[in-house]
Amino acid sequence: MLASLLHAARPLFASAFTFWGSPVTWLEVVAFWLSVWMVLCNLRVNPLGWPLAIVSSLLYALLFTDSRLYGEASLQIFFALISVWGWWQWLRGTTGEGEALRVHRLRARQAIYAALATAAAWPLLGTLLHHVTNSDVPYLDALPTVGSVAGQFLLGRKLVENWPVWIAVNLVSIGLFAYKGLWLTVLLYAVFVVLAIAGWREWRRLASTGASTKASHG
Known about the structure:
This protein has 8 helices and 2 strands, in the order αββααααααα. It is mainly alpha-helical. Strands 1-2 form a two-stranded antiparallel sheet. The longest helix has 27 residues, at 183-209.
């Protein structure tokens, strides 16, 4: 089935241009711009970011599968699925007190639990990828994968801490995609680092001032 999907999508893998000695496909170009738009929406607490995440994630799933980055490819499928949940959370989600979901912070104990769970999942996923796939970078592939799962859950619940998680994930991903020669995606994740720093700053301001963070559709 996977081979059939890749075959059907083969026209999208036509080279659009060459960047730093490596061909950049039309699929990667489209996924790049959708992803930038998505993060800008997240920064502004705009729920439009979620449908953009669904489409860009499915495109990147194809790209990463073609590059034998199976952890990252599986992660993109997970992103597409959890984005439906995140979209609902931002539109209809509530706090424990029944109030509309707003930008807020993790409690210290919750942050510790999240960090420990992520650290434990990394070698487990790396070992799985090592034994059941032909990935040549199973543990490097697994690290941003498990970090991204944590970041996506935090983002879906409008928790400020999603941004430092994304900064760390994006920095590791830059090295991973550089190794694979996906240079436009390397540039994308470098942009993500800058946007995540801006998002962290903005969401900390929103959380500390108690400003309204209801979705903006403008």
